[in-house]
Protein backbone atom coordinates (compact mmCIF):
# COMPACT_ATOMS: atom_id res chain seq x y z
CA UNK A 1 0.00 0.00 0.00
CA UNK A 2 1.42 3.40 -0.96
CA UNK A 3 2.24 5.78 1.93
CA UNK A 4 1.65 9.51 1.96
CA UNK A 5 3.67 12.29 3.52
CA UNK A 6 2.25 14.01 6.66
CA UNK A 7 5.51 15.29 8.11
CA UNK A 8 5.19 18.55 10.14
CA UNK A 9 2.03 19.89 8.64
CA UNK A 10 1.20 21.55 11.97
CA UNK A 11 3.34 19.90 14.64
CA UNK A 12 6.63 20.18 12.76
CA UNK A 13 7.45 16.61 13.79
CA UNK A 14 9.40 14.19 11.47
CA UNK A 15 6.43 11.82 11.45
CA UNK A 16 7.93 9.42 8.86
CA UNK A 17 11.03 8.91 11.00
CA UNK A 18 8.85 8.34 14.07
CA UNK A 19 6.76 5.73 12.23
CA UNK A 20 9.85 3.99 10.80
CA UNK A 21 11.35 3.82 14.28
CA UNK A 22 8.16 2.33 15.68
CA UNK A 23 7.96 -0.14 12.78
CA UNK A 24 11.50 -1.34 13.47
CA UNK A 25 10.41 -2.27 16.98
CA UNK A 26 7.21 -3.82 15.67
CA UNK A 27 9.19 -5.89 13.11
CA UNK A 28 11.55 -7.47 15.67
CA UNK A 29 9.50 -10.71 15.91
CA UNK A 30 9.45 -10.97 12.10
CA UNK A 31 13.20 -10.40 11.90
CA UNK A 32 13.71 -13.21 14.38
CA UNK A 33 11.54 -15.48 12.20
CA UNK A 34 13.49 -14.50 9.06
CA UNK A 35 16.80 -15.27 10.75
CA UNK A 36 15.48 -18.64 11.88
CA UNK A 37 14.26 -19.41 8.34
CA UNK A 38 17.66 -18.47 6.88
CA UNK A 39 19.49 -20.60 9.44
CA UNK A 40 17.10 -23.47 8.79
CA UNK A 41 17.57 -23.26 5.02
CA UNK A 42 21.35 -23.22 5.47
CA UNK A 43 21.08 -26.37 7.57
CA UNK A 44 18.86 -28.05 4.97
CA UNK A 45 21.34 -27.29 2.19
CA UNK A 46 24.24 -28.64 4.28
CA UNK A 47 22.31 -31.80 5.17
CA UNK A 48 21.36 -32.37 1.54
CA UNK A 49 25.01 -32.10 0.49
CA UNK A 50 25.99 -34.61 3.16
CA UNK A 51 23.14 -36.92 2.17
CA UNK A 52 24.30 -36.92 -1.46
CA UNK A 53 27.85 -37.79 -0.44
CA UNK A 54 26.70 -40.63 1.82
CA UNK A 55 24.40 -42.00 -0.91
CA UNK A 56 27.44 -42.12 -3.24
CA UNK A 57 29.34 -43.92 -0.49
CA UNK A 58 26.54 -46.49 -0.19
CA UNK A 59 26.83 -47.31 -3.91
CA UNK A 60 30.62 -47.57 -3.74
CA UNK A 61 30.55 -49.73 -0.61
CA UNK A 62 27.95 -52.09 -2.08
CA UNK A 63 30.22 -52.71 -5.09
CA UNK A 64 33.25 -53.22 -2.84
CA UNK A 65 31.35 -55.71 -0.67
CA UNK A 66 30.76 -58.09 -3.60
CA UNK A 67 32.62 -61.35 -3.60
CA UNK A 68 35.63 -61.04 -5.86
CA UNK A 69 35.90 -57.25 -5.66
CA UNK A 70 39.62 -57.71 -4.98
CA UNK A 71 40.06 -60.49 -7.53
CA UNK A 72 41.70 -58.22 -10.08
CA UNK A 73 44.27 -59.66 -12.45
CA UNK A 74 46.54 -58.35 -15.18
CA UNK A 75 47.23 -60.46 -18.30
CA UNK A 76 50.63 -60.41 -20.01
CA UNK A 77 51.32 -61.83 -23.48
CA UNK A 78 54.66 -62.50 -25.16
CA UNK A 79 53.21 -61.59 -28.57
CA UNK A 80 50.99 -58.81 -29.93
CA UNK A 81 49.14 -61.50 -31.88
CA UNK A 82 47.47 -62.61 -28.64
CA UNK A 83 45.75 -60.36 -26.10
CA UNK A 84 43.69 -61.24 -23.06
CA UNK A 85 41.04 -59.72 -20.85
CA UNK A 86 40.09 -60.76 -17.33
CA UNK A 87 36.64 -60.84 -15.77
CA UNK A 88 34.98 -62.09 -12.59
CA UNK A 89 36.28 -65.47 -11.55
CA UNK A 90 39.76 -64.97 -12.99
CA UNK A 91 42.65 -66.77 -11.32
CA UNK A 92 46.41 -66.58 -11.55
CA UNK A 93 48.04 -68.88 -14.07
CA UNK A 94 49.76 -69.18 -17.41
CA UNK A 95 49.51 -71.12 -20.64
CA UNK A 96 51.40 -71.48 -23.92
CA UNK A 97 49.45 -71.51 -27.16
CA UNK A 98 50.01 -71.39 -30.92
CA UNK A 99 47.58 -69.53 -33.15
CA UNK A 100 46.79 -71.81 -36.07
CA UNK A 101 44.22 -69.62 -37.82
CA UNK A 102 42.22 -66.44 -37.39
CA UNK A 103 38.49 -66.38 -38.02
CA UNK A 104 37.23 -65.19 -41.38
CA UNK A 105 33.96 -64.83 -43.21
CA UNK A 106 33.24 -66.13 -46.71
CA UNK A 107 33.57 -63.60 -49.51
CA UNK A 108 32.75 -64.37 -53.14
CA UNK A 109 32.34 -62.29 -56.32
CA UNK A 110 30.20 -62.99 -59.37
CA UNK A 111 31.27 -62.67 -62.97
CA UNK A 112 31.30 -59.14 -64.40
CA UNK A 113 27.93 -58.02 -65.84
CA UNK A 114 25.94 -54.91 -66.69
CA UNK A 115 22.66 -56.41 -65.45
CA UNK A 116 21.46 -59.70 -64.02
CA UNK A 117 21.00 -62.27 -66.80
CA UNK A 118 17.51 -63.21 -65.63
CA UNK A 119 14.49 -60.95 -65.11
CA UNK A 120 13.37 -60.84 -62.44
CA UNK A 121 16.60 -61.89 -60.74
CA UNK A 122 16.23 -64.89 -58.40
CA UNK A 123 19.03 -66.21 -56.19
CA UNK A 124 18.97 -69.00 -53.63
CA UNK A 125 21.39 -69.12 -50.70
CA UNK A 126 22.19 -72.29 -48.76
CA UNK A 127 23.88 -71.71 -45.41
CA UNK A 128 26.49 -73.92 -43.77
CA UNK A 129 23.72 -75.36 -41.61
CA UNK A 130 21.61 -76.20 -44.68
CA UNK A 131 19.06 -73.38 -44.36
CA UNK A 132 17.69 -72.34 -47.75
CA UNK A 133 16.76 -68.71 -48.48
CA UNK A 134 15.28 -67.66 -51.83
CA UNK A 135 15.76 -64.02 -52.83
CA UNK A 136 13.91 -62.38 -55.73
CA UNK A 137 14.78 -58.86 -56.83
CA UNK A 138 12.28 -56.36 -58.20
CA UNK A 139 14.03 -56.38 -61.59
CA UNK A 140 17.25 -57.42 -63.29
CA UNK A 141 18.90 -54.19 -62.16
CA UNK A 142 22.03 -54.95 -60.11
CA UNK A 143 20.99 -52.26 -57.63
CA UNK A 144 17.70 -54.11 -57.08
CA UNK A 145 19.58 -57.38 -56.63
CA UNK A 146 21.86 -55.81 -54.01
CA UNK A 147 18.84 -54.32 -52.22
CA UNK A 148 16.98 -57.65 -52.18
CA UNK A 149 19.96 -59.62 -50.86
CA UNK A 150 20.67 -57.13 -48.09
CA UNK A 151 17.01 -57.12 -47.03
CA UNK A 152 16.79 -60.92 -46.88
CA UNK A 153 17.42 -63.35 -44.03
CA UNK A 154 20.20 -65.14 -45.91
CA UNK A 155 22.88 -63.77 -43.56
CA UNK A 156 24.81 -62.42 -46.55
CA UNK A 157 25.57 -58.82 -47.46
CA UNK A 158 25.96 -57.65 -51.07
CA UNK A 159 27.73 -54.71 -52.67
CA UNK A 160 28.12 -53.65 -56.31
CA UNK A 161 31.76 -53.16 -57.35
CA UNK A 162 32.86 -51.55 -60.66
CA UNK A 163 34.67 -53.98 -62.95
CA UNK A 164 35.66 -52.27 -66.21
CA UNK A 165 33.54 -52.08 -69.39
CA UNK A 166 32.25 -54.58 -71.90
CA UNK A 167 32.92 -54.61 -75.66
CA UNK A 168 30.27 -51.91 -76.25
CA UNK A 169 31.78 -49.62 -73.60
CA UNK A 170 29.05 -50.22 -71.01
CA UNK A 171 30.22 -50.22 -67.39
CA UNK A 172 30.31 -53.66 -65.83
CA UNK A 173 30.00 -54.60 -62.17
CA UNK A 174 30.58 -57.64 -59.98
CA UNK A 175 28.43 -58.45 -56.97
CA UNK A 176 30.57 -59.07 -53.89
CA UNK A 177 28.77 -61.37 -51.47
CA UNK A 178 30.05 -61.68 -47.87
CA UNK A 179 28.74 -63.71 -44.95
CA UNK A 180 27.69 -61.60 -41.99
CA UNK A 181 29.14 -64.12 -39.54
CA UNK A 182 32.76 -65.16 -39.22
CA UNK A 183 33.76 -68.76 -38.69
CA UNK A 184 32.70 -71.96 -40.40
CA UNK A 185 29.06 -71.23 -39.59
CA UNK A 186 29.28 -68.23 -41.96
CA UNK A 187 29.78 -70.45 -45.00
CA UNK A 188 27.21 -70.36 -47.80
CA UNK A 189 26.47 -71.42 -51.35
CA UNK A 190 24.70 -69.14 -53.83
CA UNK A 191 22.75 -70.39 -56.84
CA UNK A 192 21.11 -68.64 -59.78
CA UNK A 193 17.58 -69.96 -59.68
CA UNK A 194 14.77 -70.72 -57.22
CA UNK A 195 14.81 -72.92 -54.16
CA UNK A 196 12.88 -75.50 -56.17
CA UNK A 197 15.57 -75.44 -58.85
CA UNK A 198 18.21 -76.00 -56.16
CA UNK A 199 16.24 -78.94 -54.77
CA UNK A 200 15.88 -80.38 -58.28
CA UNK A 201 19.57 -79.89 -59.03
CA UNK A 202 18.86 -77.60 -62.00
CA UNK A 203 20.07 -74.33 -60.42
CA UNK A 204 23.47 -72.92 -61.40
CA UNK A 205 26.15 -72.49 -58.75
CA UNK A 206 27.23 -68.90 -59.31
CA UNK A 207 30.78 -69.63 -58.19
CA UNK A 208 31.23 -72.10 -61.08
CA UNK A 209 30.43 -69.51 -63.72
CA UNK A 210 33.36 -68.08 -65.72
CA UNK A 211 34.85 -65.02 -64.00
CA UNK A 212 33.30 -65.80 -60.60
CA UNK A 213 35.58 -66.54 -57.67
CA UNK A 214 35.67 -67.29 -53.94
CA UNK A 215 37.92 -64.67 -52.36
CA UNK A 216 38.00 -66.17 -48.86
CA UNK A 217 36.40 -69.16 -47.22
CA UNK A 218 34.52 -69.05 -43.93
CA UNK A 219 36.89 -70.34 -41.29
CA UNK A 220 37.05 -70.76 -37.54
CA UNK A 221 39.88 -69.31 -35.52
CA UNK A 222 41.99 -71.99 -33.88
CA UNK A 223 44.61 -72.19 -31.19
CA UNK A 224 46.69 -75.15 -30.10
CA UNK A 225 47.45 -75.66 -26.44
CA UNK A 226 50.55 -77.59 -25.32
CA UNK A 227 51.66 -77.89 -28.95
CA UNK A 228 54.11 -80.72 -29.68
CA UNK A 229 53.23 -82.70 -26.54
CA UNK A 230 51.05 -85.71 -25.90
CA UNK A 231 48.48 -83.32 -24.40
CA UNK A 232 48.25 -81.17 -27.55
CA UNK A 233 44.73 -79.82 -27.95
CA UNK A 234 43.16 -77.65 -30.66
CA UNK A 235 40.45 -75.22 -29.64
CA UNK A 236 38.28 -73.44 -32.22
CA UNK A 237 36.05 -70.38 -32.16
CA UNK A 238 33.76 -68.80 -34.74
CA UNK A 239 35.22 -65.42 -33.74
CA UNK A 240 38.77 -64.42 -32.88
CA UNK A 241 37.92 -64.46 -29.18
CA UNK A 242 38.13 -67.60 -27.04
CA UNK A 243 36.24 -67.45 -23.72
CA UNK A 244 37.57 -68.98 -20.51
CA UNK A 245 40.76 -70.53 -21.89
CA UNK A 246 41.79 -69.95 -18.29
CA UNK A 247 38.86 -69.35 -15.86
CA UNK A 248 37.74 -65.73 -16.12
CA UNK A 249 40.13 -64.97 -18.98
CA UNK A 250 39.11 -64.40 -22.61
CA UNK A 251 41.81 -64.57 -25.29
CA UNK A 252 41.69 -62.68 -28.60
CA UNK A 253 43.96 -63.57 -31.52
CA UNK A 254 44.84 -61.34 -34.46
CA UNK A 255 47.50 -63.25 -36.42
CA UNK A 256 48.83 -66.75 -36.99
CA UNK A 257 51.95 -67.63 -34.97
CA UNK A 258 54.61 -70.24 -35.56
CA UNK A 259 56.11 -70.20 -32.08
CA UNK A 260 54.15 -70.70 -28.83
CA UNK A 261 52.86 -67.50 -27.24
CA UNK A 262 53.23 -67.37 -23.46
CA UNK A 263 50.17 -65.91 -21.73
CA UNK A 264 50.32 -65.28 -17.98
CA UNK A 265 47.71 -63.97 -15.56
CA UNK A 266 48.93 -62.37 -12.32
CA UNK A 267 47.06 -60.78 -9.44
CA UNK A 268 47.03 -56.95 -9.72
CA UNK A 269 47.83 -55.86 -6.18
CA UNK A 270 47.83 -52.19 -7.17
CA UNK A 271 44.30 -52.34 -8.54
CA UNK A 272 43.07 -54.33 -5.53
CA UNK A 273 44.64 -51.84 -3.13
CA UNK A 274 42.89 -49.02 -4.99
CA UNK A 275 39.55 -50.70 -4.28
CA UNK A 276 40.30 -50.45 -0.55
CA UNK A 277 41.67 -46.89 -0.73
CA UNK A 278 38.65 -45.72 -2.75
CA UNK A 279 36.29 -47.02 -0.07
CA UNK A 280 38.31 -45.38 2.71
CA UNK A 281 38.45 -42.13 0.73
CA UNK A 282 34.65 -42.22 0.38
CA UNK A 283 34.22 -42.58 4.14
CA UNK A 284 36.76 -39.81 4.77
CA UNK A 285 34.92 -37.48 2.37
CA UNK A 286 31.65 -37.88 4.29
CA UNK A 287 33.30 -37.44 7.70
CA UNK A 288 35.23 -34.39 6.47
CA UNK A 289 31.97 -32.67 5.55
CA UNK A 290 30.57 -33.37 9.02
CA UNK A 291 33.72 -32.18 10.81
CA UNK A 292 34.04 -29.05 8.68
CA UNK A 293 30.44 -27.98 9.20
CA UNK A 294 30.50 -28.83 12.92
CA UNK A 295 33.53 -26.67 13.74
CA UNK A 296 32.95 -23.21 15.20
CA UNK A 297 34.43 -20.15 13.48
CA UNK A 298 35.92 -17.06 15.15
CA UNK A 299 35.86 -13.49 13.84
CA UNK A 300 37.13 -10.21 15.29
CA UNK A 301 35.51 -6.85 14.57
CA UNK A 302 37.35 -3.55 13.97
CA UNK A 303 36.60 -2.65 17.58
CA UNK A 304 38.44 -5.76 18.71
CA UNK A 305 35.32 -7.71 19.69
CA UNK A 306 35.72 -11.46 19.09
CA UNK A 307 32.68 -13.44 18.01
CA UNK A 308 32.45 -17.22 17.98
CA UNK A 309 29.91 -18.73 15.55
CA UNK A 310 28.84 -22.34 15.87
CA UNK A 311 29.10 -24.55 12.76
CA UNK A 312 25.89 -25.42 10.96
CA UNK A 313 26.14 -29.00 12.30
CA UNK A 314 27.33 -27.84 15.73
CA UNK A 315 25.43 -29.70 18.43
CA UNK A 316 23.52 -31.78 15.87
CA UNK A 317 23.05 -35.28 17.25
CA UNK A 318 22.19 -36.83 13.86
CA UNK A 319 25.52 -35.97 12.26
CA UNK A 320 27.41 -36.98 15.40
CA UNK A 321 25.68 -40.34 15.24
CA UNK A 322 26.62 -40.76 11.56
CA UNK A 323 30.28 -40.13 12.39
CA UNK A 324 30.23 -42.76 15.12
CA UNK A 325 28.43 -45.35 13.00
CA UNK A 326 30.78 -44.96 10.03
CA UNK A 327 33.80 -45.11 12.31
CA UNK A 328 32.53 -48.32 13.88
CA UNK A 329 31.79 -49.77 10.43
CA UNK A 330 35.39 -49.29 9.33
CA UNK A 331 37.30 -50.10 12.52
CA UNK A 332 35.27 -52.84 14.21
CA UNK A 333 36.96 -56.26 14.17
CA UNK A 334 36.02 -58.84 11.55
CA UNK A 335 35.92 -62.38 12.93
CA UNK A 336 37.93 -61.21 15.92
CA UNK A 337 40.61 -59.57 13.81
CA UNK A 338 41.28 -55.83 13.59
CA UNK A 339 41.18 -54.25 10.09
CA UNK A 340 44.67 -52.95 10.87
CA UNK A 341 45.88 -56.50 10.18
CA UNK A 342 45.30 -55.82 6.47
CA UNK A 343 46.53 -52.21 6.63
CA UNK A 344 43.30 -50.29 7.36
CA UNK A 345 43.58 -47.97 10.35
CA UNK A 346 42.99 -44.40 11.51
CA UNK A 347 45.76 -41.82 11.20
CA UNK A 348 46.47 -40.35 14.63
CA UNK A 349 47.64 -37.04 13.11
CA UNK A 350 44.81 -36.33 10.71
CA UNK A 351 42.04 -38.31 12.37
CA UNK A 352 41.20 -39.86 8.99
CA UNK A 353 41.20 -43.45 7.86
CA UNK A 354 44.13 -44.67 5.79
CA UNK A 355 45.28 -47.77 3.94
CA UNK A 356 48.87 -48.93 4.24
CA UNK A 357 49.38 -50.01 0.61
CA UNK A 358 52.41 -52.21 1.30
CA UNK A 359 50.78 -53.97 4.24
CA UNK A 360 47.55 -54.47 2.28
CA UNK A 361 49.39 -55.91 -0.74
CA UNK A 362 51.44 -58.22 1.48
CA UNK A 363 48.33 -59.50 3.25
CA UNK A 364 46.61 -60.02 -0.10
CA UNK A 365 49.53 -62.04 -1.41
CA UNK A 366 49.71 -64.15 1.75
CA UNK A 367 46.01 -64.90 2.14
CA UNK A 368 43.76 -63.38 -0.57
CA UNK A 369 40.64 -65.13 0.70
CA UNK A 370 40.99 -63.72 4.22
CA UNK A 371 41.68 -60.21 2.92
CA UNK A 372 38.68 -60.44 0.59
CA UNK A 373 36.45 -61.61 3.45
CA UNK A 374 37.65 -58.79 5.71
CA UNK A 375 37.25 -56.16 2.99
CA UNK A 376 33.80 -57.42 2.06
CA UNK A 377 32.67 -57.35 5.70
CA UNK A 378 33.90 -53.78 6.21
CA UNK A 379 32.33 -52.63 2.96
CA UNK A 380 29.05 -54.35 3.77
CA UNK A 381 28.90 -52.53 7.14
CA UNK A 382 29.66 -49.22 5.47
CA UNK A 383 27.01 -49.89 2.80
CA UNK A 384 24.41 -50.84 5.41
CA UNK A 385 25.11 -47.75 7.51
CA UNK A 386 25.17 -45.42 4.51
CA UNK A 387 21.93 -46.83 3.12
CA UNK A 388 20.19 -46.54 6.49
CA UNK A 389 21.27 -42.89 6.61
CA UNK A 390 20.63 -41.79 3.01
CA UNK A 391 17.77 -43.95 1.72
CA UNK A 392 15.44 -41.61 -0.17
CA UNK A 393 12.39 -42.95 1.64
CA UNK A 394 13.45 -44.17 5.08
CA UNK A 395 16.94 -42.76 5.60
CA UNK A 396 17.47 -41.18 9.00
CA UNK A 397 19.15 -38.15 7.43
CA UNK A 398 16.45 -37.97 4.76
CA UNK A 399 13.81 -37.74 7.49
CA UNK A 400 15.72 -34.97 9.27
CA UNK A 401 15.94 -33.03 6.00
CA UNK A 402 12.21 -33.47 5.39
CA UNK A 403 11.46 -32.27 8.93
CA UNK A 404 13.74 -29.22 8.58
CA UNK A 405 12.17 -28.33 5.24
CA UNK A 406 8.76 -28.38 6.91
CA UNK A 407 10.05 -26.07 9.67
CA UNK A 408 11.47 -23.64 7.10
CA UNK A 409 8.19 -23.60 5.18
CA UNK A 410 6.28 -22.86 8.38
CA UNK A 411 8.68 -20.04 9.29
CA UNK A 412 8.36 -18.51 5.81
CA UNK A 413 4.55 -18.72 6.08
CA UNK A 414 4.71 -16.87 9.41
CA UNK A 415 7.02 -14.26 7.89
CA UNK A 416 4.41 -13.72 5.18
CA UNK A 417 1.68 -13.25 7.81
CA UNK A 418 3.87 -10.67 9.54
CA UNK A 419 4.23 -8.79 6.24
CA UNK A 420 0.45 -8.26 6.19
CA UNK A 421 0.37 -7.44 9.91
CA UNK A 422 3.15 -4.84 9.66
CA UNK A 423 1.60 -3.26 6.58
CA UNK A 424 -1.66 -2.82 8.49
CA UNK A 425 0.21 -1.44 11.51
CA UNK A 426 2.06 1.13 9.36
CA UNK A 427 -1.22 2.20 7.80
CA UNK A 428 -2.81 2.65 11.25
CA UNK A 429 0.14 4.72 12.47
CA UNK A 430 -0.04 6.91 9.41
CA UNK A 431 -3.75 7.43 9.96
CA UNK A 432 -3.15 8.19 13.66
CA UNK A 433 -0.48 10.79 12.99
CA UNK A 434 -2.56 12.26 10.19
CA UNK A 435 -5.50 12.60 12.56
CA UNK A 436 -3.13 14.19 15.10
CA UNK A 437 -2.08 16.82 12.60
CA UNK A 438 -5.72 17.52 11.77
CA UNK A 439 -6.58 17.88 15.47
CA UNK A 440 -3.59 20.14 16.06
CA UNK A 441 -4.66 22.23 13.08
CA UNK A 442 -8.15 22.65 14.56
CA UNK A 443 -6.75 23.56 17.98
CA UNK A 444 -4.41 26.06 16.39
CA UNK A 445 -7.32 27.66 14.57
CA UNK A 446 -9.34 27.86 17.82
CA UNK A 447 -6.34 29.32 19.61
CA UNK A 448 -6.00 32.00 16.95
CA UNK A 449 -9.70 32.81 17.16
CA UNK A 450 -9.72 33.08 20.98
CA UNK A 451 -6.58 35.16 20.93
CA UNK A 452 -8.13 37.56 18.43
CA UNK A 453 -11.34 37.79 20.49
CA UNK A 454 -9.43 38.48 23.68
CA UNK A 455 -7.43 41.12 21.90
CA UNK A 456 -10.69 42.73 20.71
CA UNK A 457 -12.17 42.75 24.21
CA UNK A 458 -9.06 44.35 25.58
CA UNK A 459 -9.17 47.10 23.00
CA UNK A 460 -12.88 47.77 23.68
CA UNK A 461 -12.32 48.06 27.44
CA UNK A 462 -9.59 50.60 26.82
Summing up helix and strand content along with how strands pair, one would put the structural category as alpha+beta
Number of helices: 9
Q: Judging from the principal axes of the Cα atoms, what is the shape? A: elongated
Question: What would the average pLDDT be, to the nearest integer?
Answer: 90
**Major β-sheet profile:** 5 strands, antiparallel
Query: DSSP strand (E) fraction?
Result: 15-25%
Strand order of the largest sheet: 1-16-3-12-13
Number of domains: 3
Which residues sit in consecutive blocks of at least 5 with pLDDT less than 50? none
The Cα radius of gyration reads 44 Å
Helix content bin:
40-55%
Question: Would you list the SSEs in sequence order as H and E?
Answer: HHEEEEEEHEEEHEEEEEEEHEEHEEHHH
End-to-end distance, in Å? 58 Å
Count every beta strand, where a strand is a DSSP E run of 2 or more residues.
20
Topology:
Blueprint: H1 15-26, H2 28-65, E1 73-77, E2 82-86, E3 93-101, E4 107-109, E5 122-127, E6 132-136, H3 142-151, E7 156-165, E8 171-179, E9 188-192, H4 195-200, E10 204-205, E11 213-216, E12 221-225, E13 233-237, E14 241-246, E15 249-253, E16 261-267, H5 269-294, E17 297-300, E18 306-309, H6 317-331, E19 344-346, E20 353-355, H7 357-366, H8 368-390, H9 396-461
Antiparallel strand pairs: 1-16, 2-15, 3-12, 3-16, 4-8, 4-11, 5-6, 5-9, 7-8, 9-10, 12-13, 14-15, 17-18, 19-20
Helix pairs in contact: 1-9, 2-5, 2-8, 2-9, 5-6, 5-7, 6-8, 7-8
